[in-house]
Amino acid sequence: MDLTQGHTYLAIPGPSVMPEAVLRAMHRSAPNIYEGELIDLTYGVVRDLKTVARTAHNVAIYIGNGHAAWEAALANVIEPGDTVLVPTTGSFGHGWGEMAAGLGAECEVLDFGRRTSIDPARVAEALAGDSAHKIKAVLAVHVDTSTSARSDIAALRKAMDATGHPALLMVDCIASFGCDRFEMDAWGVDVMVAACQKGLMVPPGVSFVYFNDKAAKRRSEIARVSRYWDWTPRANPEVYYQLFCGTAPTHHLYGLRAALDLILAEGLDHVWSRHEVLAQAIWAACDAWSAVGPLELNIQETSGRSHAVTSLRIGQEHGTRLRRWCQDQAGLTLGIGLGMATEEDPKSDGFFRFGHMGHVNAQMIMGLLATVQAGMIALDIPHGPGAVEAAAKVVARA
Question: What is the number of alpha carbons within 13 Å of residue 140 lying toward its C-beta?
Fold first, then answer.
């Protein structure tokens, strides 16, 4: 029976659920882009974006998705012929490396597979072997959205420092920003990229590149950076339009202002804690389901799991069927098994993902879990008992 009437729930790992406050803020006529409230609002957004990243350094805003932020970050610090070290834990690490290769860089890939985090010791070993300092940057993904692997960026920085290698530490926080704890300055990150459509709860279309003084110095040594990608005027504009190299993304700015207000009112530490508790509730349910049947969490080590997205394995015959049942019968859309294809499962039918980032609360997550369990019952997918109860106990203890 079709029971999808009413509000549907897009539980994919971005675009995330958008708060009514964000939608209301964006539902307005176009503002004056030359003077007035938009100007002051924008500089307030810039200030608060730095607060969420825990940095006193620079942020440049780009009208584009996360891939645009990848290229913008690389264009300012990498020249053709430079070498970058790319430790990967999923398809997005590979993607950032491919972006660097497209700009003429040589990529050394350390592939940690799809089920583990970055091993800082192996990164340090690779840097220690580069006595000529050909490697100009390490491209690390904090949370890979495809695998849900989360890596320890502070430990990576410590391992890099121990080698004395001057490479920049560049971090993709697109999936983790505003969800998993991230401390740009305290962790020693030189360049960070993020986007607005996940933890920031705004429609896709705006991305951010943060950079510190070390990265700015590297930018000053680059022979040529395209005028559009150049982060210098964006981060330190003489006139307003330079923030965006042209017309401002007006309605995204209003949405960002509303989203940042929600985050700051809740408190960033509480935002991180909320995501952690809700993730733990999901893991508890998955552990119960996994006691019987094929379902298992993709990342086995708790310390290596994201608090924003959870990737699951359930077998080729079940994953797509379960996703479609949840969507078509209950109004719940789960994420596909992105980048998880194998020779035996070329369409990634045995994988799916929960997105639990941004504007989510306990009742939404409990509803998600109960719906997935209903789907497994309806489709006769073997699973262990007590999953919803296990999740409820996590929420009750919080």
Answer: 27
Task: Please report, for residues 42, 45, 247, 253, 255, the alpha-carbon distance to residue 38 in angstroms, rounded to integers and kept in the order given.
Answer: 6, 10, 12, 8, 12
Mean pLDDT of all residues in 19-33: 97
* DSSP for residue 31: P
Evaluate whether 294 touches 382 at the Cβ level (below 8 Å).
Answer: yes
Number of residues that make up the chain:
398
What is the spatial distance between Cα 328 and Cα 331, in angstroms, rounded to a whole number? 6
The domains located in the chain, with CATH, are 9-16+267-397 (3.90.1150.10), 31-264 (3.40.640.10)
In the chain, which ranges are continuous DSSP H helix? 20-26, 37-53, 66-77, 91-102, 120-128, 153-163, 213-221, 231-235, 250-266, 268-290, 319-330, 362-378, 387-397
Handedness of CA 279, 282, 287, 290 (dihedral sign): negative
234, β-bridge pairs: none
| Rounded Cα gap, residues 386 and 391, in angstroms | 9
Residues 6+ apart with CB under 8 A from 242: 233, 234
| Residues 89, 311: Cα–Cα separation, whole Å | 13
Instruction: Using a cut of 0.90, tell me whether the model's pTM lies above it.
Output: yes
Q: Kindly report, residue by residue over 311-331, the tens digit of the pLDDT.
A: 999 999 999 999 999 999 999
Give the model's pLDDT for residue 1. Answer: 87
Distance (Å) of CA 151 to CA 89, 115, 342: 9, 11, 23
The distance in angstroms from the start CA to the end CA of the chain is 35
pLDDT at residue number 156: 98
How far apart, in whole angstroms, are the C-alpha atoms of residue 214 and residue 191? 9
Q: Specify the pairing of strand 168-172 against strand 296-297.
A: unpaired
